[in-house]
Amino acid sequence: MTDPSTGEAQGLPATSWLKGNAALAGRYLHLSVVLGLLGGLLIIAQAWWVARIVNGVVFEAATLSQVSPWMIVLLLLFLLRAAAVWLSEQVAFKAAAGVKIALRDQLYAHLQRLGPAYIGNAHSGELSTTLSDGVEALEAYYARYLPALSLMALVPLAILASVFPFDRISALVMLLTAPLIPFFMILIGKGAEKRNQRQWRQLARMSAHFLDVIQGLTTLKLFNASRREIAMIAQVSEAYRHSTMSVLRLAFLSAFTLEFFSTVSIAVVAVLIGFRLYWGEMAFMNGFFVLLLAPEFYLPLRNMGSHYHARMEAIGAAERMVEILAKPAPTSPPVKKALPDLCHIHVRFLDVSYRYASRQTGVHHLDFEIQPGERLALVGPSGAGKSTTARLLLGFLQAGDGRILINDMPLDTLDPDAWRQHLAWVPQRPHLFYGTVLDNIRLGMPDADESAVIEAARTARAHTFVKQLPEGYHTRVGEGGRPLSGGQIQRLALARAFLRDAPLVILDEATANLDLESERQIQAAIDTLAQGRTLLVIAHRLNTVRKADRILVLQNGCIVQSGRHAQLLAEEGLYRRMAQAWSGRT
After folding, report:
1. Tens of pLDDT along 251-287?
2. Listed residue (400, 394, 401) closest to 416, CA to CA
3. Rounded-to-integer distance, Cα 483 and Cα 479, Å
4. Is this prediction's pTM over 0.70?
């Protein structure tokens, strides 16, 4: 099951989790079973009327006028059964659609609660496969397998109850042979289930690998490693093909076994009826009625076997979903203090430490403050703790030790959404969502009017190139839209920050990987942005921190130096070594 308040899985295996979420289908799943049972009852009535018509024509010499009313009834039964089957399928798929929407919402909401700290460490290709193909794989489980599971018991019981008064021997044969079909289905299915779970894990890993390759395609070309990667992709694909074929082999074996036992069982019933008809121990109408129902008796069992692979596929897909939902999200204590409108923000880190569970890096005993209107830069080698510090301030991570104070109010007592209303964040690689330039700039301020957006773009040095686009601010960009250069995307991200007009701005090296002209324009926009605001700049290139009021140098999660650019260059230490290394590269 899933906790409805948090969306977290309660430590259950995938099978129990899938069954527990059947409640999300509401009344549609039960209605589908009722309609399926109605279809089964109509089959019984249909078989009775067919047997009656054939018996009347063959043995009672009934004329067409005599059997015409019976045939009209039979036609109505055909139409009612077709309508019941069609409605049952439609309702079942509606139930499955409801479950898919609810589960996808739960997964998205839980990933948002887990925050960038979890998503950044997960393979994006694997997450995409889980949220798209994985959720879609659950449709057949709820639309076909669960209704078939109920009908496997209800319809044969109804047929058995109808056959027993007319032919106890055939009813006994059906009763004894029916358990063989689900027994062998489960026996074979257990092996296929494990292989299917392994296949889903391989698919997730393959998706993650393919996405990594696509994202690093330029680098592979530059280092002439594309041929080696092609061979690796071929190897991974071949392994997945073998895994898929092994699952299909077992699935075909299961289908063959079900067909074999159902065919043999029907043949036994037919032979017994034939001998008793020959010896005159049974009326033709009764025997024909039972013979017509024999295939229908085994049909729900065979359908169950054909839909059993949907259960296996759903279990394989659900494993990763259960793992995601079982991951505990950071919890915040109840809000103890109201967050007033802050025009000036004073930040204090008091002996703050944080360590990631998966690795030893993090930050240790950070003790510093950011004065209102100050421009503070964080520098240091990769893994020094710069991004972790920003995530702590954004509220994406909760400090393990120490406290973060915002205007003397503990950050963990503030409403996260209200706190982030006072922030603007410009990442190193901003993302453009599919939509117009206008929509992308007012991402954080959806109600902003167009004139405010244009003014923000003008201040961010983006207005000139936006006006040159085919439809100006209404040009579609992002995935599937018009491609933009890295510098243009970065200026649109700065325009978001200008439009938000937040008192605290966090910049994660906004000038990285840009040409000199783009870097010059963005640096000028940052200088404008810094006026009257508090800036926290995460710097990977030292030429972007020269104008900082204060620079904190981090190493292994600790602050090792603090001061202005000229002061730190004059000291022997990490900053000077980094500056010398940077000068050597340029």
Report:
1. 677 777 777 878 888 899 899 998 888 888 888 988 9
2. 394
3. 8
4. no
Q: How many residues does the chain have?
A: 586
CA dist., res. 510 & res. 526, Å (int)? 9
- State the pLDDT at residue 432: 84
For 347-585, CATH gives 3.40.50.300
Spell out the domain ranges in the chain: 14-326, 347-585
Name the β-bridge partners of 550.
376
DSSP 98-130: HHHHHHHHHHHHHHHHHHHHHHHHS-HHHHHHI
* Separation CA 440–CA 430 (nearest Å): 11
* Tally: H helices and E strands in the chain: 21, 12
Q: Are 327 and 114 in contact (CB under 8 A)?
A: yes
Which homologous superfamily does the CATH classification assign to the domain defined by 14-326?
ABC transporter type 1, transmembrane domain (1.20.1560.10)
Q: Give me 304's structure tokens.
A: 């169950």
**What is residue 500's predicted lDDT score, i.e. its pLDDT?**
86
Q: Could you tell me which residues come within 8 angstroms of residue 499 by beta carbon, excluding any fewer than 6 positions away?
A: 441, 442, 444, 445, 448, 452, 453, 456
Residue at token pair 């018991």: 153
Helices 168-177 & 226-278 angle (0-180, nearest 10): 160
- Distance, CA of 95 to CA of 33 (rounded, Å): 11
